[in-house]
Amino acid sequence: MHDLLIKNVNLANGEQQVDIAILDGKIAALGKHLNIKAAIYIEGHGQLASAPFVDSHFHMDSALSLGQPRLNQSGTLLEGIALWGELKPSLTVDCIKKRALELCQWSIARGTLAIRSHVDISDDRLLAVEALLEVKEEMKDYIELQLVAFPQDGFLRYKNSRQNLHRALDKGVDVVGGIPHFERTMAAGAESIRQLCEIASARGLLVDMHCDESDDPMSRHIETLAYETQRQGLHGRVTGSHLTSMHSMDNYYVSKLLPLIKEAQVHVVANPLINITLQGRSDTYPKRRGMTRVPEMLDQGINVAFGHDCVMDPWYSFGTHDMLDVAHMGLHVAQMTGLQQMQQAYQAVTDNAAKVMQLENYGLEVGCNADLVILEATSAVEALQLRPERLYVIKSGKVIAQTAPRECYLNLQGVKTPISFSKNLFRES
Ligand code: FE2
Fold this sequence. Notes:
By secondary structure, the protein is of the alpha/beta class. The chain has helices at residues 77-87, 93-109, 127-138, 161-171, 186-203, 221-231, 251-263, 272-278, 294-299, 323-333, 339-347, 351-357, 380-386; strands at residues 2-11, 18-23, 26-31, 38-50, 53-58, 112-120, 144-150, 175-178, 206-211, 238-242, 267-270, 304-306, 372-375, 390-395, 398-402, 409-412, 415-418. The chain has an 8-stranded parallel beta sheet with strand order 5-6-7-8-9-10-11-12, with helices on both faces. A 7-stranded mixed beta sheet has the order 3-2-1-4-13-14-15, with no helix packed on it. It has a two-stranded antiparallel ribbon with strand order 16-17. α6 runs parallel beside α7 and α10 packs across α11. The protein is globular, with a radius of gyration of 22 Å.
């Protein structure tokens, strides 16, 4: 007797009318017309069953703090950083936790079951570290949080960053962060990368740096990050987040850079919602989009994910932590509207993001964790088109969130007429 049998679902890879059997928190069987008895059945009706969404770049310590202590008047990155600095002195562990727990609920309801969150360690009290470690523990049965020690005010530029970084890692923060473009000079940025990679190497940890989040084509810290990754043998364990300066770089230089990123197996996370709103601010027209070169890196075989980055905080007044919104924006900004590219945009918030976080047993295959989401759409592309309801969110074989199907009626000449937005045009492909 299995714990759960999900009947007749479509998969993100295009397979249709598949059954999924779950036992002891794992996917025990997957195929057509499974003749298996289970304690609970879910009829999928040809809807999409997907591995859960994964947000590989987020800031949970600032999420949902919009308006505290005031709104960002200019909407710029720099005023956002200044605003966060104004808010920090009044933060408490309880208020950070309260906002983070609410954010986790939003994420789970929308089918996101793993988040990598950067945590600001430039506050010597390390309140955000304490709060998010508690949230990580309290929510571990529902959502996997991976925390990055993030020296927002610079690793070398802020005097206590080294000490705070080690304190945060000693407390249990998982990943070493950095922000080389915010150091005082390019040389200091490169030096920060070298030192941070050495700390990660000595501790056996992953690295994820905010890297080149600027429109300056000469901001080339990703080159140093790839070099140090290769030099210190950290292949596959390092992520470069944002890389927006690459948007503006010389094409010839990029043709040399991408193979170096590939060689070092550096993962890349672009943050389309934030990049399209914060970059290109000093341009008149033409105005740059600012997001890094996603299709070109995917073509090189570099693992590229999309992150949400911010939700209703000093930097971004929008967002409900829906990774389908992120993929939708990402494919628009990168012009990834080819059929295969739309699939890649979906992978950027699922499989690719799971690779960034090095999640174990992730995916819809026999032996993987029974973590999945059933959406009110028939394919991955239709999910991007409709950004539909997440009918069931399942963690370790248990339904942890449910949303009723969307219902919409028109009143036409007094007659109540149901309408459906589903067109299912991509099914045959
Ligand atoms: Fe970020």
